[in-house]
Amino acid sequence: MSVDTDSVDQSAITRIGVVGSGTMGAGIAELCALRGLDVRLSVSRESSLTAAPRRIAASLERQVAKGRIEAGARDAALARITVGMDLADLSDRDLVIEAGPEDEAVKLELFTALDKATAPSAILASTTSSISITRLAGATTRGARVLGVHFFNPVGVLPLVEIVPTLLSAPEVVDEVQTFVDTVLGKTCVRAADSSGFIVNALLIPYLLAAVRMVESGPSTAAEIDQAMELGCAHPMGPLRLSDLIGLDVVVAIAESLHAEFKQPQYAAPALLLRMVEAGLLGRKTGRGFYSHA
Question: Where does the record place the 3-hydroxyacyl-CoA dehydrogenase NAD binding domain (predicted)?
Fold first, then answer.
């Protein structure tokens, strides 16, 4: 991946904070570092101080092995990332992207803390899949400088980012972030209303839930349903395999958020999906979901 140094130099956003080192947080940190940005990754557990850099290093190594980047780009990206546990370390960041668990209470607490830890000029963003950005902004004293910046997994591969302003977001802040994501990060942005699921998940989740209901009622298997959608509709990945990739717990969390907001039956998580999450069968990240990923 080549870095457009002119774009980085011309952007007012050069220092990035990322909160959370899970799949999304690590992916965002890696992307920003590859694009020549100074990245500070904030983690909540001491074990993540070493686990997070290892995860990013392993991802970068895979990119080198596939010929997507050179070894020098890998080393330079790793050198641009620092990891810590104190949110106060984000005090000099221009943009802080929250990528914590898809739990509203956790995110509200984080935004309250980030509001105190960062400079008043900093822009605060969340990459939540479904939680109201307006509610997150309400936990701060800077509603004009809060918005949603929703990346898709895997961050380094999928080109789309949903930009989600609230009724309070300053237009110039939204424009600045969208320009940054477009030109510096090299993504394609769409603007979405601050309603649960935004654009993609509001359309995608009912489709995934319908596939789960089809497995639940039989006689088609997950593999047959996926094959039908891949070969019959030219989808690159069937709905059950995609659910495993996203994480079944994340699918349930988004479904519950959509159902709470819209009260429509198509957003209700099927019993089979709920039981699988209760059993810890979350998909790829646990090694088993609708498929075995051992």
Answer: 16-194
**Catalytic-role residue among 196, 201, 243, 257:** 201
The response to whether 59 counts as a known ligand-binding position is yes
159 and 28 together in one domain: yes
| 221 and 176 in a common domain | no
The answer to whether the annotation marks 169 as part of a ligand binding site is no
Judgement on whether residues 75 and 33 belong to the same structural domain of the protein: yes
Looking only at the bridges linking them, the beta strands covering 160-164 and 146-151 are: antiparallel
- pTM as predicted: 0.89
Q: How far apart are CA 164 and CA 193, in angstroms?
A: 6
**CATH no. for residue 171?**
3.40.50.720
User: Is 129 labeled as ligand-binding?
Assistant: yes
Residues in the chain: 294
Same domain, 184 and 209: no
Annotation marks residue 153 as catalytic: no
C-beta neighbour count of 153 within 10 angstroms: 17
Helix, strand, coil in percent for the chain, rounding step 5: 50, 15, 35
Residue 294 in domain:
no
Per-residue pLDDT of the chain (294 residues; tens, 9 = 90+): 555 555 666 679 999 999 999 989 999 999 999 999 999 999 999 999 999 999 999 999 999 999 999 999 999 999 999 999 999 999 999 999 999 988 899 999 999 999 999 999 999 999 998 899 999 999 999 999 999 999 998 899 999 999 999 999 999 999 999 999 999 999 999 999 999 999 999 999 999 999 999 999 999 999 999 999 999 999 999 999 999 999 999 999 999 999 999 999 999 999 999 999 999 999 999 999 999 998
Domain count, the chain: 2
Residues 144 and 208 in one domain: no
State both tokens at 165: 């302003």
